[in-house]
Inverse folding.
């Protein structure tokens, strides 16, 4: 029946749509035909007049600006608030696809946390030669001085944002793990609210897994790692302050969880305990969800010049009187050279095969791979191991000879500091560009919580490289985002018996 | 509540109220004061406004209206007040309601986006500030629980209003002899009190009728006394102290000041004169502001006091300790 209606003509939305050589999430075939799971969405957007579509886009934008859902871009020393561009065509994932992704992510976070526990205690994986000792010790974010610190539930990474891409066969693949302070989850939540407000019919029709419980799950995760056993542990969110580019997210999450949003100057250490400074005096703090990197968190311990941190926080942390989320020293695990060993970690600790594959990675620290990188730089993507946000990166085929030479010099001077990967043709997704749909590259950042339990809300933040042909999805580099709809497994896409969404009330 | 957040809430609210009051003054000035001052002072027709808003010492090449409304150089211009209100709101964003944030954020975006070439720019900024202040008050009253957040918002609002209303009553002092008649009109208009005045006292406007409404009325919501009563109530909401009692310096100063304007206004004006009386109210308000900061915003490690008795005992102990130290020093 569907084939008959769709087969009549090319869908009007996709008249000039080019999938090129890429895997497209929404359409298939030479005359771009919507995949089954996208047929309702295609019909819906195809049925909107230009005016209706423009009105919807305007209302979305207005909402984001008015609510101040913004991030700050710094240039010329002056911060400008921008909204994270939003594309209304939702990215849709089936229940079966998600089931696989979720199992893969659980496996991965479990192995990563076992790895961190191991390198900060027994170092079994190093002595058995699975991961080179040298690699861990040379990692910029390795904190040898925290060896032997006992953490609740042995969890180091409580919040992980692993970036997933789909290759030309549609295979979900892990591109990197963000195990320090992954950001973006507020956009995931705000995008959902915006879609529910703007396109309620479509949302209801498809039957989408809710994500609104994320703040509650996050709070439960924080509470589960309290060092003091008491009914109502005091959790706070530590922000660098409102000049920080992710401040909106910090205040949003604190508000959603009903916890205090604190700055370094609101906290002080006394008797190896952390207190916050309130209008009624000092209150002891049990768990700090910190959105400040290790380097800046304690000026007496790490960078002296940091004005953001809390002097002597590390004393209280080591004494086991306060928990940090994420723990100190997790940066070793999101070192891009460590990434290459995650499949081996999974085999080593769990005796399982990795469910989600890695992208093939060449390490500058391996001499034969270093030679390969230097000789083939024009065909590879090169990344600095400790950079994030799309910085410190060279996309070989799009670079000039001069840029390649510059990277070659940097790599030769510091081979451990670089990795290279083949250029992956990230999957594409229809995206509204100047009133019509065009394919744009996307990735997916799900948010994985691990404390006493492991929880992953279905979906995540789908980031879109809005510039034509671009592979870089980071917000600082011209990226935007989409809402991510994981369909409920228990129903077909046409059922209208979806139970009322819990999210409407938020 | 975090001390820093309490401070942000307090100043957010003060800056909104400050922008509102400045806008009211500018608007009232344009309709009323223009007649009297332009003939006497030429280009300086706005100077009384600078005096009354304590910007009298300002050095600027800008015309006074620009200086008051849209100047970047003047930290207290309306547009800067709106900016600071928003910055404070941003830093306390997780504590105010999202509706409050959206109101204050829209106000800032609106005034920022009014083009400099727009001939009506000043009017538009003033109108936006005034309208938004009403909306902001309405939103906070209908969205915030009656807890600390609300109390600090109200406190900032009340102290700023007391400050600005009393300054406005001082306007005639800065005007040429014989023009106070229109000044009274300006004040009443700026305080939205012109209808109330007409209802109570008819068309005859004089110093006594204006002062009794703007300084001493117990029912008119912009009066100094009314604002001080509101500040007093907010402090009690924060500490839970019973009326007539106090546990900190802020509550003590608020009570003293409220008693002054409630019971002693006539005598004090008689002995000091209106201008000096207002000056002394201003100086009490300043020390009240400092007491608020000391009590709630500064780091305190001592245990909070629970009763006036305890508070008094601590103060008396401190006093006698200081006296002893002084005596010792003298003996040496």
């Amino acid at each position: 029946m569907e084939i008959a209606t769709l087969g009549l003509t090319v869908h009007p939305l996709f008249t000039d749509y080019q999938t090129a050589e890429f895997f497209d999430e929404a359409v298939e075939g030479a005359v771009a035909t919507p995949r089954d799971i996208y047929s309702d969405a295609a019909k819906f957007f195809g049925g909107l007049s230009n005016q209706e579509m423009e009105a919807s886009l305007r209302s979305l934008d207005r909402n984001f600006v008015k609510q101040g859902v913004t991030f700050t871009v710094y240039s010329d020393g002056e911060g400008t608030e921008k909204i994270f561009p939003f594309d209304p065509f939702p990215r849709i994932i089936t229940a079966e696809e998600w089931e696989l992704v979720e199992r893969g992510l659980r496996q991965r976070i479990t192995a990563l946390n076992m790895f961190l526990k191991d390198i900060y205690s027994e170092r079994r994986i190093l002595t058995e030669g699975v991961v080179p000792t040298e690699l861990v010790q040379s990692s910029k974010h390795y904190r040898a001085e925290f060896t032997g610190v006992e953490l609740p539930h042995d969890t180091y990474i409580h919040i992980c944002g692993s970036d997933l891409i789909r290759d030309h066969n549609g295979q979900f693949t892990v591109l990197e793990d963000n195990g320090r302070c992954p950001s973006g989850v507020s956009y995931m939540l705000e995008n959902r609210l915006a879609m529910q407000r703007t396109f309620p019919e479509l949302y209801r029709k498809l039957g989408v897994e809710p994500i609104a419980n994320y703040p509650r799950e996050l709070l439960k995760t924080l509470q589960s790692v309290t060092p003091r056993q008491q009914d109502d542990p005091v959790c706070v969110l530590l922000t660098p302050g409102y000049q920080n580019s992710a401040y909106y997210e910090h205040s949003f999450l604190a508000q959603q969880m009903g916890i205090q949003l604190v700055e370094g100057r609101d906290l002080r250490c006394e008797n190896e305990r952390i207190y916050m400074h309130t209008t009624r005096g000092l209150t002891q703090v049990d768990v700090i969800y910190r959105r400040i990197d290790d380097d800046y968190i304690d000026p007496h311990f790490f960078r002296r010049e940091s004005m953001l941190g809390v002097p002597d926080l590390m004393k209280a942390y080591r004494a086991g009187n306060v928990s940090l989320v994420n723990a100190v020293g997790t940066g070793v695990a999101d070192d891009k050279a460590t990434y290459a060993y995650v499949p081996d970690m999974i085999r080593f600790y769990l005796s399982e095969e990795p469910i989600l594959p890695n992208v093939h990675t060449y390490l500058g620290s391996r001499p034969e791979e270093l030679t390969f990188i230097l000789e083939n730089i024009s065909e590879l993507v090169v990344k600095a191991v400790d950079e994030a946000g799309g910085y410190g990166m060279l996309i070989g085929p799009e670079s000039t000879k001069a840029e390649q030479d510059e990277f070659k010099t940097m790599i030769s001077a510091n081979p451990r500091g670089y990795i290279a990967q083949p250029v992956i043709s990230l999957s594409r997704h229809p995206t509204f560009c100047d009133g019509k749909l065009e394919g744009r590259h996307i990735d997916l950042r799900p948010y994985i919580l691990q404390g006493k339990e492991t929880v992953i809300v279905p979906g995540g933040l789908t980031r879109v490289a809005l510039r034509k042909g671009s592979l870089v999805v980071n917000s600082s580099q011209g990226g935007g985002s989409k809402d991510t709809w994981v369909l409920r497994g228990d129903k077909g896409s046409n059922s209208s018996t979806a139970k009322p969404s819990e999210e409407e009330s938020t | 509540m975090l001390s820093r957040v309490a401070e942000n809430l307090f100043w957010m609210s003060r800056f909104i109220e400050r922008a509102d009051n400045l806008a009211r003054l500018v608007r009232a000035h344009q309709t009323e004061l223009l007649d009297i001052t332009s003939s006497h002072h030429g280009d300086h027709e706005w100077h009384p406004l600078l005096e009354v808003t304590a910007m009298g010492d300002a050095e600027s090449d800008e015309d006074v209206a620009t200086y008051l409304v849209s100047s970047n150089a003047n930290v207290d211009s309306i547009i800067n007040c709106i900016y600071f209100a928003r910055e404070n709101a941003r830093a306390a964003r997780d504590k105010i309601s999202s509706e409050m944030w959206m109101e204050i954020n829209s106000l800032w975006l609106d005034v920022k986006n009014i083009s400099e070439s727009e001939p009506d720019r000043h009017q538009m900024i003033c109108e936006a500030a005034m309208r938004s202040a009403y909306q902001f008050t309405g939103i906070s009253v209908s969205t915030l629980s009656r807890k600390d957040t609300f109390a600090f918002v109200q406190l900032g609002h009340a102290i700023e209003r007391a400050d600005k209303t009393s300054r406005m009553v001082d306007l005639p002092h800065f005007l040429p002899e014989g023009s106070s008649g229109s000044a009274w009109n300006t004040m009443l208009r700026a305080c939205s009190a012109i209808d109330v005045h007409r209802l109570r006292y008819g068309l005859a406007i004089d110093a006594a009728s204006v002062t009794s409404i703007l300084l001493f009325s117990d029912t008119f919501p912009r009066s100094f006394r009314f604002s001080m009563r509101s500040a007093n109530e907010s402090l009690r909401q924060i500490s839970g102290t019973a009326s007539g009692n106090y546990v900190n310096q802020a509550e003590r100063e608020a009570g003293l000041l409220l008693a002054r304007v409630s019971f002693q206004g006539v005598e004090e004006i008689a002995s000091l004169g209106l201008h000096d009386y207002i000056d002394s109210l201003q100086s009490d308000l300043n020390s009240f502001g400092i007491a608020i900061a000391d009590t709630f915003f500064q780091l305190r490690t001592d245990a909070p006091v629970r009763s006036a008795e305890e508070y008094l005992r601590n103060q008396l102990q401190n006093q006698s300790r200081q006296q002893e130290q002084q005596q010792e020093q003298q003996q040496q």
